[in-house]
Amino acid sequence: MKLTGKSIIGFTHGSETEKTFTAFNPQTGKAVEPKFYSATNEELNRAVESAKRARIKYGKLSGKEKAKFLRQIAENIEALGDDLIERASLETGLPNARFQGERGRTCSQLRLFADLVEEGSWVDARIDFAQPDREPIPKPDVRSMYRPIGAVAIFCASNFPLAFSVAGGDTVSALAAGCPVVVNAHIAHPGTAELVGTAISEAVKTCDLPVGVFSLLFSSDYEIGQNLVKHSDIKAVGFTGSHIGGRVLMEIAANRENPIPVYAEMGSVNPTFILPSALENDYVKIAKGLFGSFTLGVGQFCTKPGVVILPESEQLSNFADFLRELTMESEASPLLTSGIKETYEKGVEHRNENVASASGEAVTEGFEVQPTIFQTNADFFLEDKSLSEEIFGPTTLLVKSNTLAELLAVANKMEGQLTATIWGNEKDLEEYAHLIDVLETKVGRLIFNGFPTGVEVCHSMVHGGVYPATSDSRTTSVGTRAIERFARLVCYQDFPQESLPDELKDENPLEVWRMVDGEFQKN
Amino acid sequence: MKLTGKSIIGFTHGSETEKTFTAFNPQTGKAVEPKFYSATNEELNRAVESAKRARIKYGKLSGKEKAKFLRQIAENIEALGDDLIERASLETGLPNARFQGERGRTCSQLRLFADLVEEGSWVDARIDFAQPDREPIPKPDVRSMYRPIGAVAIFCASNFPLAFSVAGGDTVSALAAGCPVVVNAHIAHPGTAELVGTAISEAVKTCDLPVGVFSLLFSSDYEIGQNLVKHSDIKAVGFTGSHIGGRVLMEIAANRENPIPVYAEMGSVNPTFILPSALENDYVKIAKGLFGSFTLGVGQFCTKPGVVILPESEQLSNFADFLRELTMESEASPLLTSGIKETYEKGVEHRNENVASASGEAVTEGFEVQPTIFQTNADFFLEDKSLSEEIFGPTTLLVKSNTLAELLAVANKMEGQLTATIWGNEKDLEEYAHLIDVLETKVGRLIFNGFPTGVEVCHSMVHGGVYPATSDSRTTSVGTRAIERFARLVCYQDFPQESLPDELKDENPLEVWRMVDGEFQKN
Fold it and tell me: For chain B, how long is the longest CA-to-CA vector?
């Protein structure tokens, strides 16, 4: 497919505007064709107004119809074949194999949500029957369920060009909920965005859906993204990216005349507590696993273990030495963008100056960086706030604690996180019960004897966590519950059967699970 | 029980500070004893820190233990007997009978939430079992459920001294979720607040719970309330009150270093569409019902029907004349506070000057006001934004529309509302399907052939709606789903059985409904 470089506004293309940009190949540092044209504010308005016009018709689609649409998107993405893989690889410097995997995840995600809405119970239908004879006042018939929140703005993530971008987790959960979507493409992989955007747009046509269900806007700067969040007809925002970016969008949304929810997933250092018993048992395995985890995707995952807390123990120095060896022997790889590279260099330089020991040279030529680890002590860590900040890229910080009190102090001082991990044995979980209690108040996911990278897409996944890990600790951006972010509760009082949504009709024609007079049932 | 006028901070009382205030009797306009002492910021900090210390222990309480506590609160409130009824009546000018009803609702609400947490399925437990042999990577064991969000600040409502104040819907849903609560008493009914606060505090002791589970702060101005929302250890806010007050708290919360959710229920004009067929059928019944609804509690309910849209029809003038008669014949009653009275007078005066016709004299002596109705046309209503603003008190506005297009324009122009009502027959629901579609995007509750006042406390109730009706359209402040506002999702990956919460253990010892590998089940 030939790229046009133009925004997709419903079934039309944006114009050839004056503001243009290109993608960069991180392997070569060179621009990649073609030119992309920034959307104008007029084009933005057209996209949002079209989404607004589509919202009622699209919001009333049955689960079956939405499922067909989501599956069609997955098929269309697969039909792009190697073009998509190669373009994503070209724009990110990540290997083809990575994108074969990520495409698989993206399409499974689309199909998982298709299954979810086709089955239909996600709407949490509830019925309380009338009691006309109740004293002192009659009880009305009340029925409620989730309904779509309205048009949604989605921001693509730099580090997930497929699974958290144009047809990624945020988009699919919004579309599944019944919300039209306007996507703001990431500047680093616009070609990948156009390919996937075209696949969605084609699916809208094939399924005969309203034109405004999907639009994709390109922009060389932050203006279009910010104006999207300011638009009064946008009713929710999905974002995965930096803390600064997420906070700006949160503030714009909160200060609108009509504030809206922002679901920003902004990063985390994912504290990993490795207890003595675990090192005693197999420090080699843990070191290898940790190395694999903090360098996965060149350390550019929000679930990267960025701070590793280690109580003093016999095997601690063996572990640290072995991890340092693994790190020093490893090869350099390119980071996704020059911006990420710059921030990484500054972060690593700061650590070089401020902590006890580092492994080798952290930064090499071009976009490429060499993995590196740092080591410090708990008392030092507790004093220097910068050490608990995320550095996006292949680096982690080992923090040695001398006492249980110190270890708990580190846990208590931690800000909100996506995940926290504990390595140990089952007896440790009793001994360190208070540590788990503290961590539980801060994270979305607690992991025992594992690594935080690799987020399972399933019904029980919580990829969330307390601010500043996310803007909204109540929710998850991965797994089927992500759909609830784009829905709101509506109830119908004393409505006649024919005017109720199918999910709320007496005979339960869709056979969904419902709470009827307080009891769960399916008949 | 003798009132002390002092804040309740855990198991101690606040001090006799310099800033004091009293309640007023709206019937006489005179101050009511005793003096109440504003909490100091130091007392506020003590209350919040105590709540923070309590949060882990209280958050780990079983549903059974929390249920016992909530039932004990209900018992203690009932044990206050007539003291409570009389004090509430004295401070509000509302009749004793109103508070017998409201006490009933408050205690039923406490017991409903006790049943909810004792049964336990509200936590929405989900289990996805491990698949160690899955290719290309093993699937971990992932389990999730709702956990408490942390210490919560609750603001009492002027118009519900019992059901939405110290032990009201916000407090009970936060306590049920496992969150310690710091309540900011309403200045208009501090005596009622102290009585109920003491009942809760005694229940904390009786049930041997951590001291910080409950505190109650008095304040003569907004400082303490605002500082409460600013406190970094407060993790969510419940508020029922004015738009201005709610918006201020939303902005404080959004601009904190760590932003938190605010659940503000801020009012609504509850548009009521009375279609010709309904007036044809029985205009007398509808006029009587509407009159009862807009004057209930002296028109001081957030669900008061404040704008009534009437398509031109044969019976329209008969309906309006009869409603005007009912209104003019009715007696004056006192409003809750001088502030509400002042705002009411201004609002009514503005309408007197700006709309076509009014019924009699709107305002009388003292705190007392006479119900009044206004009438205008749709084109005038569409032009004058002030006409769609809420006036708290016994008044409503009839809006005549001449065409379907005009009626839809009124619906489209409406801001977010708690409720919308349609009177008509089943055929109308088809003819006006688009009206319902539009209203559904704006409200929490749609009512057919009923009145919006009287909010059923049940599992399916949605007392919410799009901003500016509430700050967070996804939620409800009435009914059992209110508990979800004070909970966040947490998941446990590869945790051993003994370290999991009971709700997530394989054998399901609490017998809660769970989603296991995608299927709902209870065994």
Answer: 80
Pick from A439, A456, A459, A460 the residue to mutate for testing the B interface (most B CBs within 10 Å).
A460
SS3 track for B266-306: CCCCCCEEECHHHHHHHHHHHHHHHHHHHHHHHHCCCCCCC
The interaxial angle of helices B96-119 and B169-177, nearest 10 deg, is 20
Beta bridge partners of A331: none
Cβ pair A316, A400 in contact under 8 A: yes
Segments in A60-189 forming alpha helices (H): 63-79, 82-92, 96-119, 169-177
Known catalytic residues of A? 265, 302
| Chain A (55-74) residues lying within 8 Å, Cβ to Cβ, of chain B | 55-56, 59-60
Distance CA B272, CA A15 (A): 45
- CB neighbour burial string for A190-199, b if at least 16 within 10 angstroms, e if fewer: bbbbbbbbbb
pLDDT in tens, A410-442: 999 999 999 999 999 989 998 999 999 999 999
Q: In chain A, where are the structural domains located?
A: 8-266+473-485, 272-448, 494-521
Q: What is the pLDDT of residues A342-390, one digit of tens each?
A: 999 999 998 988 776 666 555 556 678 999 999 999 999 999 999 999 9
Which of A139, A494, A518 is nearest residue B448 as measured by Cβ atoms?
A494
Q: Which residues of B touch A470 (CB under 8 A)?
A: none
Q: And the tokens for A412? A: 């208590």
What's the maximum distance between 2 C-alpha atoms anywhere in chain A?
80
DSSP B483: G
For B253, the closest chain A residue by CA position comes to: A254
Rounded Cα distance, A245 and A266, in Å: 8
- Cross-chain residue pair B254–A259, CB shorter than 8 Å: yes
Rounded to whole angstroms, the Cα distance separating B456 from A126 reads: 14
Contacts of B55 in chain A (CB under 8 A): 441
Nearest to A70 by CA among A111, A104, A108: A111
Q: What pLDDT digit, counting tens, does each position of B283-339 carry? A: 999 999 999 999 999 999 999 999 999 999 999 999 999 999 999 999 999 999 888
Cβ pairs bridging A and B (under 8 Å): 215
Distances (CA, A) of B498 to A456, B119, B139, B503, B507: 23, 21, 21, 12, 11
Q: Which residues pair with B23 in a beta bridge?
A: B32
What value of ipTM does the predicted structure carry? Answer: 0.96
Total Cβ atoms within 10 A of residue B2? 6
Q: Provide the token pair at B485.
A: 């506002």
CA B38/CA B217 separation, integer angstroms = 7
What is the distance between the alpha carbons of residues B287 and B373, in angstroms, rounded to a whole number? Answer: 12
Within 8 A of B59 by CB-CB distance, chain A residues are 441
Nearest CA to A338 out of A302, A300, A366 is that of A366
The tokens of B266 are what? Answer: 């801020």
CA distance A267 to A305: 11
- Spatial CA neighbour of B389 closest among B433, B424, B348: B348
Range B8-266+473-485 classified under CATH 3.40.605.10? yes
Question: pLDDT band at A483, cuts 50/70/90?
Answer: very high
CB of A205 less than 8 A from some CB of B: no
- Rounded Cα distance between A376 and A397, Å, is 7
Q: Which CATH superfamily is domain B272-448 in?
A: Aldehyde Dehydrogenase; Chain A, domain 2 (3.40.309.10)
* Radius of gyration of the CA atoms of chain A, in A: 25
Contact (CB<8Å) A459/B147:
no
What is the structure's pLDDT at B468?
97
Measured between alpha carbons, how far is A120 from A137 in angstroms, rounded to an integer? 34
Give B107→chain A minimum CA distance, Å: 16
DSSP-derived letter for residue A448 is E
